[in-house]
Records
---
Amino acid sequence: FDTITEIRQESAIEHIIGLDRTQETPIGFYEYSELIRKADSTLPEINITPDDPAFLYYTGGTTGDQKGTVHPHSALILNIYAHLHELEISRDEEMMLVTPLAHSANLFYKAGLAQGSTIHIRQGFATADAISTIERESISWTYLIPTMISSLLNADKLPNADTSSLE
């Protein structure tokens, strides 16, 4: 609460919405469920064009300071199509994603979602869990960074694991 109060004093934030159901909403916060209850049931008419902003991605700062880059809807759609085509993500995929969704896995997720694939999101990477998930869910498609691949290839459990579903 103290951090949010400090941020509010140093910025132009006008409204803070509370979601914590375990405590009473602090003074100065709006309770989310109350706002929803009072909201107009008529949705506003919104016109979105291909050039309107869709996402704000953050760069890694490899050539300078990190910064947010705005991507329009058209770029998002083209990126999804490119992932579908180049990575051959199909409707029948059982996808396993273990890397943060705020990075590359987010785009793989969107491509799989667009195709209607089944997506298994794991919270972080653990070698034994990855092997178990591949076997149990018949994972056909995954994205792993080199250290994860190395960990899987060197796992004692791998020779006896059924990974035949992986393409």
Note: The chain has a mean pLDDT of 88.
---
Amino acid sequence: WATYLGIESFGSLMVALFWSFVACSTSPESAKKGYPFIVFGAQFGSIAGPTLAANASVFGVQGLMYIGAVGIMIMIMLIVYYVTSLPPHLTGVEEENEGKSAKKTGVLEGVRLLFSHKYIAGIFCVATFYEFVGTILDYQMKVLARQVYTDPVSFASFMGQFGIGCNLSTLLFSLLGTSYIMKRYGLTFCIVLFPTCVGAVIIVVYFYASMWVFFA
């Protein structure tokens, strides 16, 4: 449980930290062009990791955990280097202008923005709704898979196959679909389409609750 919570928490914080760096150092115009390619590049790592897990019989569960621990240590060192060595305009950590005091923000600044901007609140609701649904569906799939793959190695291999399939589809969609749909139909359509697709998934798994349906 400690390992699971540590990995899940670190993964969530790392992704948020990465995008905070990117958002602070890019303009909206470049973001529209560059974000899909960032996601595209990230999928190679997202596929490489599950590929290792799919070969759990070779590395062993403990070996996979050691590989993950080394990866986390490397990322921490890279972040320290990134913040301390690169120019402020590349990291988003801008220095205060001479003669001006920067407006200080507290730990509740995000909450204030959430309730003062309907747009941000809408994004929050969409993203949070998906996280709830995704977590429940993911858990249900794992429960069913655990009944089929009873030993840790075979279960890890199955989850590796799931990670490969999930991230490979994301890779293809980020390359071929994201930018086109955004340009063709606009942001509002995409934001509405997202929970609509999630709702369709819920209906399907409600009537066909099998392990491979959850997998798909």
Note: The two ends are 27 Å apart (CA to CA).
---
Amino acid sequence: MVRRSTALAVTLLFCGIVGAGAVGAQAVPSSLSLSEARELARQNNPGYLAARNDIDLADWEVRSAYGAWIPSASVSGNLGWQGQGEQVLAGPLSASQFGLSNLPDYYSSSYFAGLNWSLNGQTLFAPSQAKASRDATEARVTESQVAMEAEVTRLYLDVLRQREGLTLAEQQLERAEFNLRLAQAQADVGTATLLDVRQAEVQVGRSEVAILVAENARMTARLRLLEQIGVDPAQEVDLSTTFELQEPAFDGEALFDEALQINPSLVALRESREASAVDVKIARSAYFPSLSLSAGISGFAREASDPSFLIAQAEAGVESRLQQCLTTNELFSRLADPLPAQDCSQIAFSDQQRQAIISQNNQVPFNFTQSPPSATLSLSIPVFQGLSRQRNVEAARVQEQDVRLELRAQEIALRASLAAGLGQVRTAYAAAEIEERNVALADEQLRLARERYQIGDIPFVDLVEAETVKAEADRDLVAAGYAYQDAITTLEAAIGRPLRDR
């Protein structure tokens, strides 16, 4: 009763600690299969989701590369102000030297709308480079997914392993309690000593400790699994998938040929090789001519803050023309043969002219004066730029060759990994079969030891030794079985797909 209460207290403590930090996390089904665990990890694992976000950015890189083929458009406008006072017109000349003094404040506005388009080798090959980079990104995300699912499988197996370890610990406790009752019965009839009883009690205590350790290991494994899945780790789940020990019948060459096609690392390297090949083309395109086109329209407006200055200028101009007309008439009248006088009465500053000046001054901000449109087409042919272009070509070519060599090295390593993995699977299967026989022999040995102890043929220490052999055989069988499953999981990760139908 004390043992059960202690185990329950440990469980509640773990749930309380984890539950305090798991508020708002996604729940999982009470019965969780391996395929469901993998699917939940694809939906919730933060590391995998962060890697998958790179695909969205890669898609926009492709769109941006194609967008570079489209002319860019820009529209701009500005407003300006110039205070009154002396203004410098050009070089050392000022406005007062032209009779323009005490100029008023001026406001100005302008706009510009233009199109720009250019085409060169880098722009031409940019979409191919972006698509190759996107394919490489997708392959790396797939690689991350395979690694994540393999880790989920390992943790799933570990939970099952620890659960079986707990079951074995409970069975060992039951056997220890049976041995204790057996020793007490033998002591009651005088065929066993008090020392045998005390040894049996020690075995019971050790078995209780083993249960506490096994329960802690089971809860820790469960927490690690739910953490990897990315869901609420405070809840209990029942793992429903079972794993059987099956004789491996894999064809090594067939698996290698399949892995060459679907192994995520190899696929990512192949896509990186394609991107490197495009990089070589882009480096060589530095020798290509480049074409650019630009066109634009613009307008401007200028307005005096006080039109009185403009009116005064216009009145002064009219007065000057009137004085010139009068002077000319006087000269004509003094000639020996006088010329007919001009009609100076027509020269006068009218209210209509005043209103026209005021209206024409009202320009800012949108009464623009249109400037002539402009367009420019240019072709640039690079002739000599030192050796930098060829250096960039060689650097890109070397990078491509390095990726090819890395791909070849990965293929060789993959063959070695598959061969080692298949050997490990076969070895683990053979070891598990041997451990099954060992368990059967240990069962028989324990049964015989109990019978001989009951008749007083052997001491209690021999019974304890038989119990120890049985416990070790059970643990070794569980370890061998899950070593086989772990080896299958490693082989799945190397190939890039599951080998067990779940």
Note: The first helix runs from residue 2 to 20.
